[in-house]
Design brief:
Blueprint lengths: L2 E4 L34 E6 L5 E5 L2 E5 L4 E4 L14 E6 L5 E5 L2 E6 L4 E4 L14 E6 L5 E5 L3 E5 L6 E4 L7 E6 L5 E5 L4 E4 L7 E2 L17 E3 L4 E4 L1
Parallel strand pairs: 1-19
Antiparallel strand pairs: 2-3, 3-4, 4-5, 6-7, 7-8, 8-9, 10-11, 11-12, 12-13, 14-15, 15-16, 16-17, 18-19
């Protein structure tokens, strides 16, 4: 049984923060004046060294707490980032950062600060070439990738086999989350919330106790789980 929590707001504050809690929180604005390449931030990640990474509609930004370093496409540099629209970020165990762009995946090498294109083909000959909305991993070390119009891909733990799952209505797929039971939840744009616990041998529409698709008209753009295996849908 899954416990679902639905929120309409991006930020949720416990009322105890306002009553009986004297700890203060401070916010610092980081924008164009501080060096950010573009004001539409699509994803945020902190790597294992402490750097903050911000993906925007015009470049990848690395922040060290004081200043930004911007990575963008350069037509005369084959080792530069190949696309400037950054939809998703994921750090691999070896320290590489995988960047989901509007034109596939690019891999950042932190030692050389160079980028390479992920050109691996899946078992059915498909390459990832469309907007990549989510990159994440499961408890077995497999990497899961959500790609607009192409569906879902899984890079097996050893990194030498890419599996393509051509799910229903791939044009509307928007997000993926894996809970602590390794159930895979897939969000759609106006199509609902689906799940599978057998690697897509079955793909089930989530409905409430009255068998109603409560997300039928919603754009599911974010799914998260907490330590109690509650599922949060945005």
């Amino acid at each position: 049984m899954y416990n679902l929590r639905f929120f309409l707001l991006f930020f949720i504050f416990d009322i105890s923060y306002f009553y009986g809690n004297t700890e203060k929180y401070y916010f610092k604005h980081l924008g164009l004046e501080q060096g950010l390449s573009q004001s539409s931030v699509l994803c945020i990640m902190q790597d294992h060294t402490g750097f903050m990474w911000f993906g925007t509609k015009d470049g990848l930004n690395r922040y060290d707490g004081n200043s930004f370093k911007i990575f963008q496409y350069k037509y005369d540099d084959p080792t530069s980032l190949g696309n400037n629209v950054i939809n998703s970020l994921f750090e691999m165990k070896n320290g590489e950062i995988w960047i989901g762009t509007d034109a596939g995946i690019y891999i950042y090498n932190p030692k050389s600060e160079c980028f390479s294109y992920f050109s691996t083909s899946s078992q059915d000959g498909t390459k990832i070439t469309q907007p990549v909305y989510k990159i994440t991993s499961d408890s077995k070390g497999n990497v899961w990738i959500v790609v607009e119009s192409q569906g879902i891909f899984c890079l097996k733990n050893k990194g030498n086999k890419l599996i393509h799952y051509p799910i229903k209505k791939p044009n509307n797929v928007s997000y993926l989350e894996i809970d602590y039971t390794n159930t895979i939840w897939v969000g759609y744009k106006g199509e609902g919330l689906y799940y599978t616990n057998d690697n897509f041998k079955t793909f089930n529409l989530f409905t409430d106790s009255n068998n109603i698709n409560i997300f039928a008209d919603d754009y599911v753009f974010k799914i998260m789980t907490d330590n109690h295996n509650h599922l949060y849908i945005g």
